[in-house]
User: Fold this.
Amino acid sequence: MENPKKKELMLGNKAVARGLYEAGVCFISSYPGTPSTEITEEAAKYDEIYCEWAPNEKVAMEAAFGASLAGRRAFCAQKHVGLNVAADPLYTMSYTGVNAGLVVGVADDAGMHSSQNEQDSRHHVIAAKLPMLEPSDSAESLEFTKRAFEISEQFDTPVLIKMCTRVAHSQSLVEPGERQVPVREYEKNIAKYVMMPGNAIRRHPIVEQRTRDLIEFAETSDLNRVEMGDTSLGIITSSTSYQYVKEVFGDKASVLKLGIANPLPERLIRDFASKVERLVVVEELDPIIENHVKALGIKTEGKNIFPLEGEFSQNLIAEKLGVTPHKGKKLEDAIPPRPPVMCAGCPHRGMFYTLKQNKCTVLGDIGCYTLGAAAPLATIETTLCMGASIGAVHGFNKILGEKSESKTVAVIGDSTFMHSGMTGLANVAYNQSNSTVIILDNSITGMTGHQQNPTTGYNIKGDPAGKIDLEALCRAMGFSRVRVADPYNLKECDQVLKEELSVNEPSVIISRRPCALLKYVKHKPALKADPGKCVGCQSCMRIGCPAISIKEGKACVDATLCVGCGVCSQLCHFDALVSSEQEA
Assistant:
């Protein structure tokens, strides 16, 4: 057993992982999604915990349920949109309950730093009638994680821990403790765990009674706390908004901090409201707490003052509540914007250039390749959710007919394909739309920081694991045309694309080249622009590589960024881009 350490600074996500270790968790299954990814990556550093990346969040949730059923504490993590994927098992797990403790981590992304929406996950726990805890710093992230397992076993329920970008990715002091591993035996119980209608209808009243019991628990739990100060203003808040409120007001306002996001207490709120002259609810995104307070018949302010969208800040709260905002030091020079861009040598760039040259309509998906929508490539025209590109291209081509006429294709990454693209591809094969699907296989889950997936052949610890053969899988699903193309070879990409668009049947193109940032990828020497040959036509700029710029009318290659992929040199008609090694 690991000895407890002295206090140390920890990221919120790392503190959750420490809480999982101390709570005696034995099984973790997750799908990477910013800002939740580091929870599982940090937990994987503990040899006592089995950790895995699952193909998607639904599978991760079901695997965690199975581990809980077997009698060991279990956990799964995802970001807010991932919880949508896992909602199917989650809602029914509310009825079955658990055996050993089962906790689900979900990280919301107010401000959409890396997400396609600003979904508020509290809606899920309200609908599923499940408890949710919401820490506001790293110390609470550790403590609340441990408490969540106690609540899970005490009330026979899955419990959710709601993180957000700021809590997940900020640091504060944490005091680690010791690990204890509770063990439960599995007992066959068909009435509890087999949710056929006759059993499920008997479980529903149990869920409702559990909610009433949890409300009573929330009334006195120290997870919710009152901090009385000046009673002219009372603020009900939670999560990172609590930190902002305290920084702005200190003891110049009274605060009810809610660590239990669902179910919310009633008597505690009434008592607090009765002690203050003005009541305000400060919460990011939707007015969940505010609506609850108003449903109790209590007058409060909230979204009439604060926005429904975006992240809050100290200055925002100060401004909206009539306090002089904190004036920080300003930089003399404005920081230039740094828009996201595909990396130098990104293997997706060549395929996107080819699609643009062929004037294709490209339905996109979730991944770093979504940046193919940005100028100058500006190729991707839709991005909805994980796996949606394949379902969408099927419907699009069923309506508009031959793909050789519409030139409409789907692009999807290898990890996203394993996550939720396979069922869409099965639909194309089964219902025979004349569609071409391009799997952008960069041999890693790139967008969330290079996690392994079922196509890479390695597990979360980097050890050899089962490896899915994409070509064999696609053929087994009913595709007779499965092609592999090297996106660094523009001529090959163009030929393969034209051939697959011309045939009258479904097809798959696998654009295969590993991510340029992978440590094991060996790069060629950087290219160099020959100013004597460069005529300043800027053809090389059409691929949008950050290693290439124009200086004094001539192409210039940044040798610190260039990986020698050679895509730009294939666009130069004057042989001005050559290997720096060759020129030497």
Observations:
- The chain is about 35% helix and 15% strand.
